[in-house]
Predict the 3D structure of the following.
Amino acid sequence: QVQVVQSGGGAVQPGRSLRLSCGVSGVTFNKYIIQWVRQAPGKGLEWLAVISPDGTKQHYADSVRGRFTVSRDNSKNTLDLQMNGLRVEDTAVYFCVVVGVDPWGQGVRVTVSS
Amino acid sequence: DIRMTQSPSSLSASVGDRVTITCRASQDITDFLAWYQQKPGAIPKLLIYAASTLQPGVPSRFSGSGSGTDFTLAISSLQPEDVATYYCQKYNNAPWTFGPGTKVEIK
């Protein structure tokens, strides 16, 4: 049974940093691409980033490139999203997604406000 | 970057109706397309990948078709539990853009 458990999130001021984490069980973690997706309040899904199974390749959406960094530890079946220089428009629920697998992570809320 | 559009943006249909949602890519993405269902207040769920392959456990009333730039998600007989917003996503290369979503309601 696949489980994707997220942690992190919270409320921060603009310009500050947050780190989101994601723990995965029930799949051979090092064989899967992982993506991060967010959903602003009342809005649709926005793709943020993707990381290759071995962690050597990452791609980012223009909206977060240079501010967000995704990494993974295949020895621990974990994934991180380091978010720097947060902006008000980054306020959203953030999801960790094992590509091709359900369920998604439960989502964590990030609120950026002064 | 490739743009993804969906139509309609919302629809209302009766239980038992056949419903179709269209997703269009601005460039050829072959069959690198997934469909997700997000029920109100819930996390999204993968329905279909590779344009037409049903995720295990997804009811057979759902089907996907298309390739290249034009794709369709069909619900053969709409059920009350299908009330949700449906999103397509391309994943041929980055960015893995989502469509804007189609909200499906029961008339």
Summary: Residues 89 and 98 of chain B are 4 Å apart (CA to CA).
